[in-house]
């Protein structure tokens, strides 16, 4: 094996690990059996086009520059780590981060949807967090809506010439918070309040999730910035390969 | 470069503080998952205890809830794998940068 093949081989092992053994748990996910079959199918159907897009997007990224597999593995591993850490929050309950913001910034929102889906499947099967019936809804909130917002905010900040690290911080933390907003909305749609309907219900769910998640969103932002700093220092050629750094930019 | 190092250190400390401070400030809090808070909110809204219509497959397989210790084991396995991959890749990157610099000097 030459050096290049070795890189590909080791990265593929890394990816196999991410994809193969992923008992990720996300406390904010909608619990198994808590959505009616109609909503399960609806959310699943909404996810489909994004997942297909994500699959082709990953394929394209890898075809363009095989080295970028390492960054895909890195994004996956990051989701892995931060979503396993349940952190105490100001409200007296624990929650954990999503970690999808970093991936969205690095390899694009659509590619992250695949990483997120795989994480969610194994978590639903092995750890009884989230669930197979609510997989569609959870995929939409954590692996599609959150990353899309992160990606959008990052691009917007860069266009407005905001400092790169500040952009990453904002993108990752707001994306994390947005995931919870979507979850609240999904629950509210399924359980509209008798008085006031969906809006009152959504406000109620948001009141449960948001205060817990806010400090964690800040931590996620900070961690994402740290990973970006690390990659910028040591993996410039990969970052150029996926277009995160422009040619000639340091 | 030195400036960046300080940024990293400060950011790490801030992240740690955000995570740890609630534990000491809110003494006696339960720190349960916000997952449960979600189901409590549901029963508040619907006015009755909600009965999930589908049980997690793992619980069906082992006929009961996953033991707490095993659950924390699986959590640790997950963290370990993630950290392992990140550390491995970062290690490779760092060493490669070092080699490139050495080659440039020669």
TrEMBL record, chain A:
Pathway(s) it belongs to: Cofactor biosynthesis; adenosylcobalamin biosynthesis
Subcellular location as annotated: Cell membrane
Family matches, as Pfam families: CbiM
Membrane topology summary: Multi-pass membrane protein
UniProt main location, coarse: membrane
InterPro entries in UniProt: CbiM, CbiM/NikMN
Keyword Ion transport attached: yes
Keyword presence, Signal: yes
Transmembrane portions of the chain: 7-28, 34-56, 105-128, 135-154, 166-191, 203-231
Keywords in alphabetical order: Cell membrane, Cobalamin biosynthesis, Cobalt, Cobalt transport, Ion transport, Membrane, Signal, Transmembrane, Transmembrane helix, Transport
Free-text function comment from the UniProt entry: Part of the energy-coupling factor (ECF) transporter complex CbiMNOQ involved in cobalt import.
Similarity comment: family membership: Belongs to the CbiM family.
HAMAP family, per the entry: CbiM
NCBIfam families listed in its UniProt record: cbiM, PRK08319.1
Subunit relationships: Forms an energy-coupling factor (ECF) transporter complex composed of an ATP-binding protein (A component, CbiO), a transmembrane protein (T component, CbiQ) and 2 possible substrate-capture proteins (S components, CbiM and CbiN) of unknown stoichimetry.
Protein name, as recorded: Cobalt transport protein CbiM
Organism name: Fusibacter ferrireducens
From TrEMBL, chain B:
Pathway where this protein functions: Cofactor biosynthesis; adenosylcobalamin biosynthesis
Family annotation (InterPro entries): CbiN
Pfam families: CbiN (PF02553)
Keyword Transport belongs to the record: yes
Cell cycle in keyword set: no
Subcellular localization, as worded in the UniProt entry: Cell membrane
Annotated signal sequence range: none
UniProt keyword annotations, A-Z: Cell membrane, Cobalamin biosynthesis, Cobalt, Cobalt transport, Ion transport, Membrane, Transmembrane, Transmembrane helix, Transport
Topology term for the membrane: Multi-pass membrane protein
Transmembrane segment boundaries: 7-26, 72-94
The protein's assembly and partners: Forms an energy-coupling factor (ECF) transporter complex composed of an ATP-binding protein (A component, CbiO), a transmembrane protein (T component, CbiQ) and 2 possible substrate-capture proteins (S components, CbiM and CbiN) of unknown stoichimetry.
Entry similarity comment: Belongs to the CbiN family.
HAMAP family: CbiN
Function: Part of the energy-coupling factor (ECF) transporter complex CbiMNOQ involved in cobalt import.
Protein name: Cobalt transport protein CbiN
Taxonomic lineage from the root: Bacteria, Bacillati, Bacillota, Clostridia, Eubacteriales
């Amino acid at each position: 094996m030459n050096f290049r093949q070795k890189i590909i081989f080791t990265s593929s092992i890394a990816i196999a690990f991410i994809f193969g053994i992923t008992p990720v748990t996300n406390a904010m996910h909608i619990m198994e059996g808590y959505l009616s079959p109609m909503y399960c199918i609806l959310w699943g159907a909404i996810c489909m086009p994004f997942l297909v897009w994500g699959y082709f997007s990953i394929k394209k990224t890898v075809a363009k520059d095989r080295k970028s597999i390492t960054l895909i593995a890195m994004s996956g591993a990051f989701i892995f780590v931060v979503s396993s850490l349940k952190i105490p929050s100001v409200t007296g309950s624990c929650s954990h981060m999503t970690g999808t913001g970093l991936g969205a910034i690095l390899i694009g929102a659509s590619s992250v949807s695949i990483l997120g889906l795989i994480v969610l499947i194994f978590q639903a099967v092995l750890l009884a967090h989230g669930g197979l019936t609510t997989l569609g809804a959870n995929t939409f909130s954590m692996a599609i809506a959150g990353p899309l917002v992160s990606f959008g905010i990052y691009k917007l900040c860069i266009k407005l010439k905001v400092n790169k690290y500040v952009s990453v911080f904002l993108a990752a933390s707001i994306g994390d918070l947005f995931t919870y907003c979507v979850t609240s909305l999904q629950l509210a749609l399924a359980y509209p309040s008798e008085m006031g309907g969906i809006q009152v219900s959504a406000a109620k769910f948001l009141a449960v999730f948001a205060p817990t998640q806010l400090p964690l969103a800040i931590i996620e932002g900070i961690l994402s910035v740290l990973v970006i700093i690390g990659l910028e220092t040591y993996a410039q050629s990969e970052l150029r390969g996926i277009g995160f750094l422009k040619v000639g930019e340091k | 470069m030195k400036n960046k190092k300080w940024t990293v250190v400060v950011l790490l400390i801030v992240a740690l503080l955000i995570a740890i401070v609630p534990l000491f400030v809110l003494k006696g809090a339960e720190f349960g998952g916000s997952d449960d808070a979600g189901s409590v909110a549901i029963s508040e809204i619907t006015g009755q205890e909600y009965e999930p219509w589908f049980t997690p497959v793992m619980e069906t397989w082992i006929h009961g809830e996953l033991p707490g210790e095993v659950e924390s084991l699986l959590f640790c396995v997950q963290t370990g794998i993630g950290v392992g991959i990140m550390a491995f890749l970062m290690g490779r990157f760092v060493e490669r940068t070092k080699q490139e610099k050495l080659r440039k000097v020669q």
